[in-house]
Amino acid sequence: MTDLADFTARLTALTDGRASAPRLKEGVMTIALDVGGLEHDRRDGLAAAIREGALTVPGVTDVRIAMTAERKPAETPPAKAPLRILAVASGKGGVGKSTLSANLAVALHRLGLKVGLVDADIYGPSQARLMGSEDQKPQAREKKLIPVTGTLGIPMLSMAHLVEPGKALAWRGPMVGNALTQLIDAEWGETELLVVDMPPGTGDIQLTMVQKHKPAGAVIVSTPQDLALIDATRAVSLFHQAGVPMVGLVENMAGYACPHCGEVSDPFGHGGAESTAGDLSMPFLGRVPLAIDIRRRSDAGDPPAAGEGVHADAFHAIARKVADWLKASA
Ligand SMILES: Nc1ncnc2c1ncn2[C@@H]1O[C@H](COP(=O)(O)OP(=O)(O)OP(=O)(O)O)[C@@H](O)[C@H]1O
């Protein structure tokens, strides 16, 4: 290696690649040094070290360092995927929206999606219990709520995290809409998909949801019962009117297997949801059986979808269809 080549190599190491290749003419060595983003002391220190090194190269009598502030373009952070909302709704109360929302969030999380969960049932929140996060309180940063993380590592927010247990909320429509917006516009970080457990019916919260927060899609839950299906049809129509696409219909509490004799009975009828889905030209996403174990585990804050077995499988099969839909509609 010549003395100049040797110095060039040392120069690159010394300046972390900020120096140009040195030019030597009539004893004068010229080097361009990119000082973009460097503190004054560091610039001067580098220049002095370069000068000192350059003068050790045989034939160099003078050193000229041209400092340029050609800042390297800041690396653009990878574009963050927009937060999409999946509304889980029904027309009628008590059909299992909350149970499905919690288990769907868990199953989608297990499929690798970055999922968050919002309990939009402002008057009757239940997700904190279902996800075992009742004892947690969200913090706030710059007026934004920071979601709590349940035992399964899923970020979530519910009014149950903000009000005292058992305390009734006596809020009017606009306040309820604001509360929903606070939950949805929270600091969700890396979350890509918010599963939103909607309250039953077609009131203020539903309107705020469809008009202001524009869900990417809606999953409708119903029992096989005719009455529940009529209400489900009403919920579908609300989303249709607002231009929210339907992901599909889930039949909950379908078929009860007697834990003693194994006989399967259908307390709420059979197949009603699938045929209603057909009538409404929307996909049927699957059935969740009526099972004591689902209720027990839900009450204990241990969603069945977090475990294994037939009940977990039922939620996972639905979650796979939802994930496929989300992928196709992205
Ligand atoms: N498949 C199921 N098998 C057994 N119990 C179930 C099932 N689905 C839901 N439940 C139970 O039924 C009750 C109502 O369910 P859930 O709270 O999920 O319904 P919801 O539609 O969200 O009710 P609400 O309208 O009050 O918000 C709960 O006690 C729940 O544990």
TrEMBL record:
<comment type="subunit">
    <text>Homodimer.</text>
</comment>
<keyword id="KW-0067">ATP-binding</keyword>
<dbReference type="InterPro" id="IPR044304">
    <property type="entry name" value="NUBPL-like"/>
</dbReference>
<comment type="similarity">
    <text>Belongs to the Mrp/NBP35 ATP-binding proteins family.</text>
</comment>
<dbReference type="GO" id="GO:0016887">
    <property type="term" value="F:ATP hydrolysis activity"/>
</dbReference>
<keyword id="KW-0479">Metal-binding</keyword>
<dbReference type="InterPro" id="IPR019591">
    <property type="entry name" value="Mrp/NBP35_ATP-bd"/>
</dbReference>
<keyword id="KW-0411">Iron-sulfur</keyword>
<protein>
    <recommendedName>
        <fullName>Iron-sulfur cluster carrier protein</fullName>
    </recommendedName>
</protein>
<dbReference type="InterPro" id="IPR027417">
    <property type="entry name" value="P-loop_NTPase"/>
</dbReference>
<dbReference type="GO" id="GO:0005524">
    <property type="term" value="F:ATP binding"/>
</dbReference>
<dbReference type="GO" id="GO:0051539">
    <property type="term" value="F:4 iron, 4 sulfur cluster binding"/>
</dbReference>
<feature type="binding site">
    <location>
        <begin position="91"/>
        <end position="98"/>
    </location>
    <ligand>
        <name>ATP</name>
    </ligand>
</feature>
<dbReference type="Pfam" id="PF10609">
    <property type="entry name" value="ParA"/>
</dbReference>
<dbReference type="GO" id="GO:0140663">
    <property type="term" value="F:ATP-dependent FeS chaperone activity"/>
</dbReference>
<keyword id="KW-0547">Nucleotide-binding</keyword>
<keyword id="KW-0378">Hydrolase</keyword>
<dbReference type="GO" id="GO:0046872">
    <property type="term" value="F:metal ion binding"/>
</dbReference>
<keyword id="KW-0408">Iron</keyword>
<comment type="function">
    <text>Binds and transfers iron-sulfur (Fe-S) clusters to target apoproteins. Can hydrolyze ATP.</text>
</comment>
<dbReference type="GO" id="GO:0016226">
    <property type="term" value="P:iron-sulfur cluster assembly"/>
</dbReference>
<dbReference type="InterPro" id="IPR033756">
    <property type="entry name" value="YlxH/NBP35"/>
</dbReference>
